[in-house]
Amino acid sequence: MDIITIIFIAFGLAMDAFAVSITNGITIKYLRINNALKIAIFFGSFQAFMPLVGWLAGLSLRDFISGIDHWIAFGLLSLIGCKMIYESIKIESRGEKVDPLNVYVLLMLSLATSIDALAVGVSLAFLKISIVTPIIVIGIVTFLLSFLGVFVGNKSGHFFENKIEIIGGLILIGIGIKILVEHLV
Questions:
Q1: What are the residues whose beta carbons fall under 8 Å from the beta carbon of 102, sequence distance 6 or more?
Q2: Residue 79's pLDDT is what?
Q3: pLDDT (tens digit, 9 = 90+) per residue, 87-109?
Q4: Which residues contact 89 (CB under 8 A, 6 or more apart)?
Q5: Are 76 and 123 in contact (CB under 8 A)?
């Protein structure tokens, strides 16, 4: 897998974290750089760690499904992309405000936004791709976008939040189609 594809995967995966970071930025009244760094470190670390976990799990299954691995990668990426698009357009009721800088809140948000990265890690194992470059790129891209997202949210409000997740979902679906076409042609 080339670096450009890895970067697109990283951007697609980072869109959930970016959208949540925007929301966090909205709720932080007096934003400081260390607040944005804290959020970005949590999201970037989880997004880098979860593909590794998925990749390790996928290694144990890879030999059993080597003939259909491209279909599984396509399916997983498409499902993740569709899930992101669906979640971005469904109407949610907003409850009470949660402190976005609370460690437990950050752990839960980081885990929730990185589940998709776990499935991508499984796909990378099926495609027999080394995991080192993807986890570094995914972690860095997520860190940078999360850091930026906090400031965007603090300044711009809810305008970008749902649109970003739709773009991320479309990117992941596109990469799934690309993988499938490459293996079928």
A1: none
A2: 82
A3: 777 755 555 556 878 898 899 88
A4: 162, 166
A5: yes
Confidence (pTM): 0.76
The rounded distance, in Å, linking the Cα atoms of 69 and 37 is: 37
Neighbouring C-beta atoms of residue 148, cutoff 10 Å: 16
d(CA 23, CA 158): 7
Q: What angle do CA 171, 175, 1 make, to 5 degrees?
A: 130
**Residue 129 CA, distance from chain mean position:** 18
Q: Using the structure block, give the residue that is written with the tokens 């995966």.
A: 13
Separation CA 145–CA 61 (nearest Å)? 32
Query: Is 36:102 a contact under the CB 8 Å cutoff?
Result: no
Per-residue DSSP letters for 91-155? -----S---TT-HHHHHHHHHHHHHHHHHHHHHHHHTT--SHHHHHHHHHHHHHHHHHHHHHHHH
- Split into its structural domains, the chain has a count of 1
CA-CA distance, 70 to 125, in Å (whole number)?
A: 11
The residue segments making up the domain with residue 151 are 3-184
